[in-house]
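INFO  loader      accepted 1 record
INFO  loader      residues=321
INFO  predictor   begin
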Amino acid sequence: MAAFGAHHEWGKLREVVIGIAPAEDFVVFHEESQRWLTPEGAEFARRHSGRRLIDIDAELAKRIERQVDALAELIAREGVTVHRPERLKGEERRFMAPNGEGGQLFPRDGMIVVDDRAIDASLRLRCRQRERFGLRPVIQRMVAQRGARWSSVPFGSPAAVDGPFLEGGDVLLNGRQIYVGMSGCASDMAGIDWLSALLGGDYRVIPVALRSNVRHLDRALALIKPGLLVWCPPSLIDGLPTALRDWDKIEVAVEEASLFATNGLVLEEGHVVIDAGNERVIGELKRRGIDVIPVPFDGPISLGGGLRSAHHPLLRHSMPA
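INFO  predictor   done
INFO  writer      dumping C-alpha cells
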C-alpha cells in the first residue's frame, strides 16, 4: 500500500488535513475577484473589510470554530488520521491579517495532492496567498516520512492579475484524468499548463470552463463514487467532461450549489459527509445506496467554503487507472 497520495475523489480515506478556525483570527476582506459573492455578501465584505469577524458577529465566529473542530473529531472517530495546519504567526500573519482573512479554514485550496505529489498551490486572493506556509510543516513530514514528492506553483502577481494561479478547490481527481475549473475567480490557464507539465504524459489535465461567478469547480461538481456525480448544469459552460457524461447524475440548482450541495467529504466509496442543510441531495444520495453522515456546517459555508474545502486528503487508497 502507498504511504502517501490520492488518485480519485473516492477511495478509502486514511489520512487528511482539516483546517483550523480560531474565532479571533478571521478578518473580513474584500477583493475585486470575489464575483461569487451574493449582493448581500459583497456589501457585508465591503462594509466590514479589515475588521475581525469576532468583533462583528462573535456567535458566528465561535460557531465556525466549533463546527470545524467537530468535523475533525468526527473524521478521527471514523478511523482517519487527522492533521491540522500550523497556525501562522509573526511575519506571515502580519502579511495576511491587514488584508483580511487570517484564518486557515480551507486547506483544500492551499495545496494539491495528485498521486504521490504534494503541491503548494498559488492562490489568487492576496489575503490568502501565504496560507500554504501553514500547510508546509505537514507536507515536509510527508516528504521526510512517506516519500512524497514536493513541488510549488510559482506565486502569481500580488495584484491577482498575472498567474499562474492554481487552487485545490478547482482540482478534481479521476485517475489519470485531472479536471481543473477555470472561471477567472481562482485557477487560470497558466496554472493548468504548469500542472500538466509537472504531471507529464501519463495524465490528462482537462480545463473545465465555469461561469464567471463560480469560484471553484467543487462548487459545481462532485465525484461521489465511480459512475455517480452531483453537478450544477448552469455553472459549467460546456457541460461535463466527456468521460463523465454517461454517469448517473444528481442535478442541483444554482441555489443549492450556493449552499455547497456539491461540496462534501468522501470517507470511502459509498460513504460521505454532507452538510445537513442539503436535505434533498442527501435524500437523492441515500436512494442510490450511499451512506450519508449529515453534519451542521453552515458557519464555514457562510464564509465561502464547504466540507470539501475544509479538508485535503493526504492518503486515499484507490488504484490510479
